[in-house]
Amino acid sequence: MAQFKLTYFDFDGGRAEPARLALKLGGLRFEDIRIPIPDWDQHRDQFRYRQLPEFEVDGKWLNQSNAIARYIGQLTGYYPEDLWEAALCDAVVDTVDDSMKRLVDTFSMPEDQKKAVREELVQTTLPLFLSGLNQSLLEQGGIYFADDHLSIADLKVYVMVNDLTNGHLDYIPTTIVAAHAPELLAHQARVRSYLRENTPQLDYV
Ligand SMILES: N[C@@H](CCC(=O)N[C@@H](CS)C(=O)NCC(=O)O)C(=O)O
């Protein structure tokens, strides 16, 4: 069997999490290398683009979280084979990135600027993206985002909803998803159940 190695930061969320979850759902054994965030400065220079995640398959190297998730999704059956359904899946994945990038950009801001920018995001960008994703889910039947089957698009949205509702992001109310995208909360519960049923070794979902 191929040797898989995923390197990211030491938390259950963020850009590598859809790939981690797809690896576990697919039953693929992998080395889950987690760099503690406080140690990042001393590790940064060993990575080609000074950023994570990175993925290796039998010594071959891959970067970009969505390319990694797509590759693992294709290996494990969590990426649509139908071209149109695959395009729908990709669009959801990229939409989540567009919305979360605005938030990630605030991480390094001074506190007063971070507060102002996040409060603005809560009023404008996040409602727009959340309600759009809510609508996309409903258009596909309200259960999964593509192909009537769980895919990396569902894992991507699930991780985003977890990140927005777990109370770890200052100035982002944990009620924001309920306020603008109630279907995404039902979807979060559905994906969590699926993960619990299909990856019993996961104890944090
Ligand atoms: N487009 C890239 C973005 C990667 C990225 O921005 N990674 C962040 C963590 S989520 C990072 O490594 N930040 C560390 C730094 O910039 O020093 C991807 O999706 O993989």
Write the layout of secondary structure elements.
Elements: E1 4-9, H1 17-25, E2 30-35, H2 40-43, E3 54-57, E4 60-63, H3 65-76, H4 83-104, H5 111-123, H6 125-139, H7 152-165, H8 176-180, H9 182-198
Parallel strand pairs: 1-2
Antiparallel strand pairs: 1-3, 3-4
The structure holds glutathione.
Radius of gyration: 17 Å
Helix fraction? 40-55%
Major sheet attributes: 4 strands, mixed
Structural class of the helices, strands and pairings?
alpha+beta
The CATH class of the largest domain? Mainly Alpha
Beta content: 5-15%
Overall pLDDT confidence: 96
Q: What's the β-strand tally?
A: 4
CATH architecture heading of the largest domain: Up-down Bundle
Name the poorly predicted regions.
none
In spatial order, strands of the major sheet run 2-1-3-4
Q: Spell the H/E element sequence.
A: EHEHEEHHHHHHH
Choose one word for the global shape: globular
Q: What is the terminal separation in angstroms?
A: 27 Å
Q: What's the quaternary structure here?
A: single chain
Present as ligands are:
glutathione
